[in-house]
Amino acid sequence: MELLQGPGLWIHKSFYKHFDHSNLLFEYKNSSDGKVYDSFRISRDYRNIMACSVDSCPSMTLAS
Q: pTM for the full model?
């Protein structure tokens, strides 16, 4: 994602970092100095579906 704003031609880039199967970090950087100006993490709890048997896991889950 790149945003061009005003006469100064600021370019912002977003970077995505994957830590494991449950966490994703989004960082927004200013290209002129490379510093991180905003970031947020998306995380989730989930069951390992490979460990489920027919009777041990629910048929559906609710996202939160």
A: 0.35
